[in-house]
Amino acid sequence: MKQFILLVQKDLRLTKWVTWIAGLILFSAGVTGYLFDNVSIVIGVGFVTFLYFPPLYMVMNFSKEWKYRLLLQMPQSGKILLAAKLVAEMISFLTLAFLALIGLLIGSHLPNADFSITTLSELFLILKFSPFVLIYGINGGLLGGITNLSTRFAQSYFKKGYNWFGILSTFITVYFMTGFTNTDVYTKLFHAEFIPSFVFQEMGNKQVIYSGDFLYSGMIICILFFLSSWLLDKKLNV
What we know:
- By secondary structure, the protein is mainly α.
- The protein is 73% helix and 5% strand.
- The protein has nine helices and two strands.
- Strand 1 and strand 2 (205-210) form a beta hairpin.
C-alpha cells in the first residue's frame, strides 16, 4: 500500500503544472463568466478545459514516463502502475471540479453577476451530475492512456506514422463506445424493464436516469483498464 501511495504521489508531481494551469482557467472562468455579455465564450473555455483534461493528463503523464524511462525502473505490474495513474488523474480532475464550483459560487455573488447560486436546490442541480463527472473522468483518463500506449506499441513496429495509429485507435474506440448507445440492442440490454431507473422532474420536464447506463460505463472502464494493463505488461515489457 505504501508503494502504491508513492506511485500516486510521483504521478501527481509529474504533471502538476498541467493541473494548476487548468485549475486557474476553470476558477477564472467560474468567477468572471457571468460578468461578460457573451457568457458562452467564457464558460465554453472552461468547459473545453474540463472536457479535455483527463485524456490530456494521461497522455502527458505517460509521455514523461517514457522520456525519463521511469516505467522501466519500477518492478510493478501494469495494473498497479495504471491504477496509480488513474487515482492521480482523478485527484487532479476532482480538484478542477472543486475549483470550478468555488469559482462559480464566488462569481455568482459579484455585484454585476447575471446569475447567482443561492439555494440548496440550485446547488443540488449541479451536484447531481457528479456521478457522470466521475465516470467521464475515469473513461477520459483511460482513453488518454490507450492513445499513448497504442502509439508506443506502434512505434516498435513502424518508423513513421505511429502517432496517427494512436489517434486512430482512440477515435475508433470512442466511435464504437458512443455509437453503440444509440442502437436498439443497447436499449434492449441496458434500458430493460428489470434494470432499475430513476425518474425526477426538472423545470417541469420528466427526466429518467437508467442504472443500465452506469453498468455499461463500468463495463467500458473495465475493458479499457485491462487492455491498457495488458499493453503495459505484455507488449511494452514494463
